[in-house]
DNA sequence: GAGGAAAATGAACGGTGTTCATAAATTTCT
DNA sequence: AGAAATTTATGAACACCGTTCATTTTCCTC
């Protein structure tokens, strides 16, 4: 029976993930240090490498949890309005809300890069894909003539556009908008795009 | 007369910028090493810190040059078509073309982060703002009722959306589109958005 | 409980950006 | 033009990073 071993191992993994999550939330991905994480988790520096292959793998697990939380936030909105326009706007608003409420964790999702030549694991790519799935259903109602591959492409494009708007606004690179202006700007954008889709359908 | 001093100083700066630019183009921002740059530029390691405050300042100068080249690429397209729809599509296409032709340099524009607590210098923010300016004129034709602040907000939103579509597609995070599909998807997006803007105007 | 296997430890390693006493080069003064 | 003063180039040294590994400690099997 190796119960105690496995339990300790899982406990250590959990504490490391939690510590890394807290550090990311506080100082962002750039401020993440293996020595800080292990100190917070109450273990030795080397213990991190008995639980995970390297820091990247640990970050991937933190991002997994963030994606799950983001997925829940979107799921709540997706079950609300039935009309495609209202639902897409609700999803965009929820995405913006999550991003500004969990700024550092959300930024980590897209800032993190694997070591050169190392691909993102398949299971993590699949978790990202879920974000797009929420858009397919309302888009299908809006564009009944499209087949599945085309719908997926449109959904990915729409997600990318919304992500770009949220992303650039929450960075300091361009002159920022007030949060309330950002929301109305984003919802206006979705409105315009939906109107365009309806027009083209005719 | 301090002519020789200034000339040498400018020459050193130029060689460092050129070396950094080549390294970024070859291995990206993540593969940039102070020792590699100074070796390529033919100077000692410490010389970098007599020409620039730190690596960040050097990267900022490389990004400046990239922004200037991107600006030229957009300028060429901006003087072509007169119709707003055609011009916005030409600009989006040019942006995508520049991004895929200069992938590493383009990525560096948005991946680079200053040290924590240090703001991006004003002169560099201004260089970014130029990207948006190209969109204002065609948008003004499309939306004659809007005042300047609103036009700027719409232009920034449109740029962010196009940037998001290009950005996520050129990364490996989501399932990628073939380059040719990406272009038609992007142009279709601009088409839809312009149609939406025309509809709402009525 | 004894013996063996697995895991935790933290000092040590190689590599990073940055600094700094020293040396070289350039300008200024007489 | 030559000497003194000032600025700049140098690269070894520093602090810090992720990661490794011989050693110790803990846990499982018998």
Q: What does this protein structure show overall?
A:
Two copies of one chain form a homodimer. By secondary structure, chain A is mostly helical. The first copy, chain A, has two domains: 1-52, Arc Repressor Mutant, subunit A, CATH 1.10.10; 56-201, Orthogonal Bundle (Tetracycline Repressor, domain 2). Chain A contains nine helices and no strands. Chain A has helices at 3-27, 34-41, 48-51, 55-78, 84-101, 103-111, 122-142, 148-170, 179-201. In chain A, helix 1 crosses helix 2 (34-41), helix 5 crosses helix 6 and helix 5 runs antiparallel to helix 9. The longest helix of chain A is centred in the first third of the chain and has 25 residues, at 3-27. The model of chain A has no long low-confidence stretch (mean pLDDT 93). At the A-B interface, helix 7, helix 8 and helix 9 of A face helix 7, helix 8 and helix 9 of B. Chain A binds a DNA duplex (30 and 30 nucleotides) through helix 1 and helix 3.
